[in-house]
Design goal:
With 501 residues, the chain is mainly alpha-helical. It folds into three domains: 235 residues, no CATH class; 108 residues, no CATH class; 94 residues, no CATH class. It has a three-stranded antiparallel β-sheet. The protein has a two-stranded antiparallel ribbon with strand order 4-5.
């Protein structure tokens, strides 16, 4: 059973010319429980055009006053509410998202919610599906049905008929209109064909002040052609009203009075689809590219960099030209304030490299230096890889090689009594250790420790490779041999870098 859409039943309207006719009509207000399509007492509008006639009638009748039912929000059903209704009239189906209406009207999210609530309370909108917001998921937009209140039909004497007895009551259609209301319907049709726009904040000096204030209060009305009133899905709206037996002129004549052919304006966009940048746009474009190309400008303010590089940007410089000039000028290794350093480096640059040829030469020098630096890094990596991952190399120092050869000669002579050792078996190594005196062992260990502290392990590792680790530990000590082997194994790995400063 449909709930009533007003607080009291509407009284019959005797004549549209009677000035006190609106006074006998009840106050428009639909409670929240009756704002659903199944509970609505109104009827669904056949198209957006006839629905806008009802919207303008509600706006002018004064039957709906929002502040009678709440203490916050808009004070009246005015031009802003009509602008929101115009956006809804162009949608089919009527599923407007809050973000969409915010972009289209320029209002805040709270204001859009206020005006949607006013349209529902006035009986002009009814929920079909109420939008939801699930945590972690996308928000679902509400779907509305554009409704014509029963007060509108009663005030204008519109007769309705239910063509399908099994259909809900809100599907009834208009079948006629009172003859006395045709003039008022024609005025509403003319207003429905116009578009109410947001009033400008600054008025023109040629318009009188009182006229500007009056226009801001009533809303600026602009004629709209047939193409503009199409929905975003390219579904046209009908130009006829909800009354079936009333005929009206075309919408173009109702809107402006004269049918005019629309003259397409020339587009200011370029052939590629992008507009040509002005002076300020080129400055910001160069600044944005510099903050992306130069590491020491990362995080700097783009407007500040645009102001610093304004002279070279106005001279037609590109980011490659700036890189070439910075190569000639010299960059600092440590940067504390990127914008300040850039201002110093670019001082007078447009006067030095004042021709494209000079800038091209600077770019070539910069690219040549970049290529040379790249080759040098490749050679360094290749040399490091061959050093640490290749075979064992003899010590490069001549003094170290001499000490190693003298030590081994002394060890061999002491072990064989002046004879060369042909076989390095365990017995010969033990005989060698037995013939070495404590003083000689102490000297060998002192020499090995000295070389180890200097970063050289060749003396110990040569003994390990020649006589084995047990014999080398008896000569130099287990601790020194262990440390020497750790450093030697680390030098052969590409994950470790060892050296002296």
């Amino acid at each position: 059973m449909a709930a009533p859409a007003a607080q009291m039943l509407p009284a019959p309207r005797p004549s549209v010319d009677d000035a006190d006719a609106v006074a006998v009509l009840p106050v428009l207000f639909v409670p929240e429980a009756s704002q659903w399509l199944s509970m609505s007492a109104g009827r669904i509008a056949g198209d957006g055009y006839s629905w806008m006639q009802a919207v303008h009638w509600v706006a002018e009748s004064g039957l709906y006053k929002p502040r009678r039912h709440r203490s916050h929000g808009p004070r009246s059903f005015g031009p802003t509410t009509v602008r929101v209704a115009q956006e809804l009239a162009q949608l089919f189906p009527c599923r407007p998202g809050i973000d969409y209406l915010v972009r289209r009207t320029g209002l805040s999210e709270r204001s859009v919610e206020y005006h949607l609530g006013m349209l529902r309370e006035a009986g002009l909108l009814a929920w079909i599906v109420k939008g939801t917001r699930v945590s972690g998921g996308p928000a679902q937009a509400s779907e509305f049905a554009r409704m014509i209140p029963t007060e509108f039909d009663t005030a204008l004497g519109i007769r309705t008929v239910q063509r399908d007895e099994n259909a809900p009551p809100y599907t009834r259609a208009a079948s006629g209109i009172a003859e006395a209301s045709q003039e008022l319907m024609a005025k509403l049709a003319k207003k429905a064909a116009r578009k109410v726009r947001k009033p400008r904040s600054k008025t023109s000096s040629k318009v009188p002040a009182m006229a500007s204030v009056r226009g801001a209060e009533q809303g600026v009305v602009t004629a709209v052609s047939d193409e503009v009133r199409c929905t975003p899905m390219q579904v046209g709206t009908s130009a006829s009203s909800a009354a079936g037996d009333t005929s009206f002129p075309p919408e173009s004549k109702l809107a402006s009075g004269v049918s005019k052919s629309a003259t397409p304006k020339k587009s200011k966009a370029k052939a590629g689809g992008r507009r040509k940048l002005n002076v300020v746009g080129r400055r910001f474009q160069l600044a944005r590219e510099l903050t992306q190309e130069l590491d020491w400008l990362r995080g700097c303010s783009v407007p500040r960099i645009a102001w610093v590089a304004r002279n070279v940007a106005d001279a037609g410089w590109t980011v490659a030209d700036v890189r070439g000039w910075l190569h000639l000028r010299g960059e600092a290794a440590r940067v504390r304030r990127g914008s300040g350093l850039l201002a110093v480096l670019l001082a007078g640059a447009e006067t030095v490299l004042d021709t494209p040829a000079k800038r091209a030469d600077a770019i070539e020098q910069w690219r040549g230096a970049q290529e040379a630096a790249r080759r040098h890094r490749i050679q360094q990596v290749r040399a490091r890889t061959e050093r640490y991952e290749g075979g064992w190399d003899a010590p490069t120092s001549h003094a170290v090689r001499s000490e190693v050869e003298a030590a081994f000669t002394k060890v061999r002579d002491a072990a064989t009594g002046g004879r060369h050792q042909d076989h390095g078996d365990v017995a010969d190594n033990q005989a060698l250790e037995a013939e070495l005196s404590e003083q000689e062992l102490a000297q060998l260990r002192a020499d090995a420790w000295g070389q180890f502290m200097a970063g050289e392990t060749d003396l110990v590792m040569t003994a390990v490779n020649a006589m084995g680790r047990p014999a080398a530990e008896r000569i130099y000590g287990a601790e020194l041999v262990h440390r020497a082997q750790q450093i030697a194994s680390g030098l052969r790995s590409s994950l470790m870098t060892y050296g002296r400063q």
